[in-house]
Amino acid sequence: MCGSGEKPPKPSANGAGTCPPGATTQTCPLKKPHLVELIEVVARSPLGTVVGAGAASARLATKTTRKDKSGAAFKQYVNLGKDIDGADQRHPEYGRAVELRARVEGEGALAGIGVDFRCVLHAGPQRPAGLAGTPQEGFGSAGGGSTASATTDAEGWTGTVSFHLSQYAGDQFEVYARLAEGGAEKRIGTFEVWRRFWYQVTRANTHAVPAPDKSIAAYQALAAEMLAADEATFTKASAPASTFYPGWMVRAGGGDAEESVIGGHNRSEFYKLYKDEPGKPVKGHLIVCQHQWDPIGSSDLVTAQVASNPSAEIVVDLKAWNAGLVKPALSGSLVALGRWQQGTQSGTLGDDDIQIVKGRSGLNCIKVKLPAGAPDPTQAPVTVKLKLNYGKYYAGESNGHHMLIVYRGEAANFTQVVAHEFGHGFGQTPRPGSEIAPLPPHAHQYDNAHGGQGSHCSTEATEVADATMTSGKRWTNGSCIMFHQVNPGGCKQRFCATCEPHLRLQDMAALT
User: Fold this and answer.
1) Mean per-residue pLDDT for 48-52?
2) Residue 505, in any domain of the structure
3) Inside any domain, residue 210
4) How far are the Cα atoms of 202, 256, 357 from residue 381, in angstroms, in the given order?
5) 511, 483, 512: which is closest to 499 by C-alpha?
6) At what angle do helices 213-220 and 411-425 cross, to 10 degrees?
């Protein structure tokens, strides 16, 4: 592990000086070798100097300037490959390693002079003790040594020495070099561990979507840069079937305007709108819709007495608060089983005989209009039996880099869901045994059948009694972005202190 900011040693006398005219080597000793520069380089063709954390070198022909800073430190995006734009456009600010060279001057032969390198760590917030192996910093490789040695060539240059930053976001590093025999140190730095990723918005061309500013801020606070990529749009004509429904059919109090509905029945078609960009290898696909619904299957059997045509409203018990019926069904037929009967007469019911009308008292309510040939129900009630295919609605989901995000004008909800789904893509909240060493198990992790799927965080949430629970716990009003439900009033629009080190230790090299 690197040192922790100790002061460099004082320079020692090195015999350097200028001899007066006419002096001999007996009266004026040769100028001893001394370290004149420690620079960052980028291995392009030809080799170039990187300016920012280090100074330029007049001995190298090309120069690249680092610009991305965090305070006084220069950002190093450890989750990206240096060559994503090709070797001739190699990015010194990408990748775990920075490449360094030192140069010695002096009179006489310069080849074979030893130079020692060391690093100094300024730990990021909540950095766990005992960081080791692949997540750790080191010379030569991640988890390598805290020091390195090199020797000079005939021109006084050392070979390129690579220093690998840690994987822990917010860690800062300085690198020092000096002659192996002693003398003044040269310093380069400061480099800070960052990650960079992008997001693509895909939306209906009539659906205005804001930038997820608070999501960006939540990741910025953890030294992760979230940048916009090109967006994609679709129209009603280009979208698959069962994408647009009148608002009143898919939400209580909705209007007549059609709203986008994306879920298990059609999402794969929207996945195809993702734009693959080699220069943006870690990119989330935010498929923004007004409603996310998934087809679930058929309801339990409903038996009702019909005394008018169409009937009075029939309530279908769907066993969930977030379930509803739409027509046409999300997938396949609305009617899984439909029968009518009066005495010895009977017949079948199909989709055409089911009415979903504006102003219904709930998303699980329908009316039946008996088909031609059925008895007049006003003379004697007709019994109907139904099983209807229904769906459930959610606030968002992630499937690798594809994410469904609901936005209907509630900016706080939207930004919470965006950050939440990216969090799942980056492995949050880790279940016991899946955390990265040396972090302990997440103290507030939970995973149960209530309120969505996946692993979540219960920081500042309240436990709720629930007789239907067979295992685990049920929670409400959590304050962390990784809580399982949208909580615009109680969510602090940031990752909690327990989640923070788990996210900082993720390298964010891919969305899974």
Assistant:
1) 95
2) no
3) no
4) 50, 33, 22
5) 483
6) 40
